[in-house]
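Quick one, T. Sequence first:
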Amino acid sequence: MYTKKIQLILILIATLSFFSYAYAEVATLIGPLTWRLDNSGAYSFPKPLNGAYAPSDFVATPGQINSITANWEAEGEIAFEVSADNGLHYYPVTNGVPLKSGFVSGNRLRWRANALSGDAKLLSVKISYTDSSRVLGSFGHPDLSGFKYRKAMLIKNPGNQDLYNYQIKLNIGENPSVKGADLNCLGHIQADFKDIRFTASDAETLLPHYLESLAGLSPKRTAVVWVKVPQIPKSGVIIYLYYGKAQAEDLSDPEKTFDFFDDFKGQALNQEKWNVYPEQQGSYSVGNGKIRLDAAEIVTKDFKFKEGVVEYLCELGTGFENSLSIRQTNIKSYDNPYWSAYSSVYKGAEHCIAVDNIVKANDADAKPAATGEQYNYSLSLEAGKIVFERMDASFKELGASISYQITPEPKAGYLSLRSGGDGSGKNNMYFGPIRVRKASAVIPVIESMGGEDKVSLPVFLNTELSGQGSIILKAGALSGYYLSSDIASTVDVNIIIPSWQVMPADKTTLSVGFSTDKGLNYKQPCEKGKYYYSSKGDFASGTSLKLRVDFSRLNSKEESRGLSQLSLDWRPGKVNVITPNSSEDWGAGTKKKITWSALDYELTYPFDIAYSVDKGKTYTDIVTNTENDGVYFWTVPNELSKTVKIKISNSLDKTIYDTSDAFFSIVSGGLEAIEEAALAAEEEALKEEAEKTEEPKKQPETKLYDILIKIGDNVAPNPEVDKRASYKEGDIVMIKPAGYVWGAEERSKFLIVQAYLTPKQAEELISPKTVNGRLLSRRQYKIDLRKQGIRKFWGALEKPKSVMDTTVVETKSGVSIGKAETK
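C-alpha cells:
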C-alpha cells in the first residue's frame, strides 16, 4: 500500500508540481532547548572535562537553521560556541544575542562551552532558533505578558575585554521632562515603577534588575535601577526596557541582580549567608534593616570575593572602629585577614588599608569617623588595586579615600564584617545593606536607541513555561490560557491547518484555536491537522493571525507536562490552469486532458471547470464539484472557435479561479485511434490509483518540501561507478524542507519543484534501488521528464525561456515552473 502512495505522489508531482509553485506559509512556536545542571531540562547536561562542556549528540531541527540564540547562566566567565551543521563549523556567540548571519547553516544544532577561569562553572543553557520550515522561535516569556511598550538601549564597552554578569546602573525618567535620565518612558509607566522589565538582545530573555530608589513626584519621577547584563562584548550590546502594564508584579530582586546581597531585613541573621562569631563577651542582634555587632564578626558562608565592588552602610553607634576584611576560612579561627579596610575615630587610623595586619595606607587628611554617624562605604578591588572610599549618608560628600596596590594579587576569600571592642556594650557597630557587584576600570556607557515601540507580546494567564520549555498550567491552577503574539501574513488567508504537540503523559485538556483578526474572533476548538476554509465559513479571510490555547484539568495536583509545539499552516488557496494554456488546436469530439494545480487544497475539495468560446465573456460548465485531483478528461464539444479558454474555479468561492493564459482553438477533426486509446488508458490508471490510495487529507503531518531532480545523466569515466553511483536523468537527488537555500550550481543544473509530503514519504522518495541488498542505482524512483514535456525544452545546462507557455519563476529556494501571476 505504501508503494501505491509513492506512485500517487509521483503522479501528482509529475502532473502538478512541475508547472506550479505551491504557496504556503507556516508559523511554528516551540519551547526552547534546555540543559540544566540539575537535569530538569529537556536534554542531559554534559559533564565538564577540564572546564569544557559539550553535549554528546546534536539536536535535529525541522528546517535549515536561520538564526541561533544562546542564553546561559554561569558562575564566572564562559566562552560559548554554536554549530548548525553537527559540529563541522562552530561560531562564537554573545549571551542573549541572536546569531543571524555569517555561519554555515544546517539542521543539526550543537553547542560547546569553555570556562575561561578555573573557578568558572556553567549552570544552565537555553537555546532558541529559527529555521526555513518557519520555526519562529519560542513561545515568549510569561513575565512579559501584558506589557505594551518597549525601548532599546545600547550599552557601549570602552574597555578592551568582554564584561560578564555586569551590573549596569540606569537612571530612568517617568517623562521626557526629567533631566539627566538615561532614557524615559513617555509617561506610560506606572508611578511606582513596578512595571519594568529588562531583556537581552533577543527581546525575550529576562534580565535580573533591582529598583534601588525613586525620587521626585509623579509625573516627574526618576528611578535608579540596576540591571545585570550577562555579557557586554567589546563591540557593545543592545538590551530592552519593557514597561506599561497596570498592576504588574514587582520583580525587583537584588538577590539575583548582585553577586552578593543582604539587607538584614529579617528578625534574625540569615544563616544561609553568614557565620557569626562573637567574642567571649561579644554580642550581635538584627533589626530595622541593620545588624548590630559588639566585639563580634560575621563571615560569608559560601560567597567568596576576589574582584569587584563591595558597598555597605555602617553606623558607628557607640563604637570606635569597623572593618571589612577578607579571610581564608569562614570558620572560627585566629588567622589574620589577608587584607582589611577600616575606619575609626582614632587619629592616625582615620581611613586605612591593611595587609597581613600591617597598615599600608591611611588617609590622614580625612576627618575621623564620628560616633553616632552613618556612612556609606565602597571598596573596589581589581587587578590587586584596592580603592576604599567613605561617603556621607546622602552620597553627596566624599569624606575619605585611599588606594593601595597589593602584590601579588590576593586570592579569593570570604568577606568579613567586624566591630572592635571588648563586649562591654561600648563599641556597637551597625551594618546596613551590603552588596557586591562587578568592577571595571572603564565604565560602560548607556545610549538610548530610537523611540518607543508599541508591542504585541504573548499572553500567559495561569500558565508558565516548564524547565523543558513547554507551556504548562501554574501550580494549583485548574484552568488558564496562552495567546501568541500577532503573526503577519503576506497574503489573504483562505486556508488554515493548525497542529500541535503535547508532552508525553500529559493529563491536561487542551483546546486550540486561531484568529485572523488580531484575536477579536477565534475559531475554537480546532482539530489537529484539519483543513479549515474561509470558503466553507470556518473563518473570515484576513492577514493578521493569532493562536490561542486553553488549558484545563480536573485536579490541580495532576501533572501538567504541557504543550511543546504549536503550528499554523496557512495558504491563499490559489489555483492554476496548466493545460490547455497555450495556442494549440483541440479537435472537436475528441477527449482531451485538462490539468490544473491547486496544491493548497485537499484532494477532495470541489472545483468547477468551465469553457468559453467568446474570449472569456461567458462560460459554460464542463463539470461542477469535481475533486481536486488535478486531472479531468473532457470530450471537446463541436463549437469551433479560435478564442477558447478554460476556467478552473473554487466551487465554494467563485472569486478564486484561474483561466488559460492564451486562447486555444477547437477545430474539426480528431485524434488518431492509438492516441485516443492511450489517453483512455491513462484516465483509467489515474482513477484506479485514486481509489486504492489513501488520500492526503488522511495524512495531516505533511509539509512542503523542495525536490531536486537531475536533468541529464552524469558522465563518469568508470562505467561501473556510473552504473552504481551516478545520478540519472529524472532521479530525485535530494529533498529539503521548503525554504532551503540552494546553490547556484544546483539552480542551474537541476529542476527544483515542490510537493507536500510526510517525512516518511520524503525519505522513501530518496531511497536507493536495491535487489537482494545489491545497489542498482542511487534512486528507486525517478521522473520521466520527456513524457512530462519538459526535457525537449530544457537542456541539461540550459534554462528554458518558457515551458508549454508557462514561465520560469525564480524563488529564494530555487527555480520552479509556474505562472508569474495568478488571476
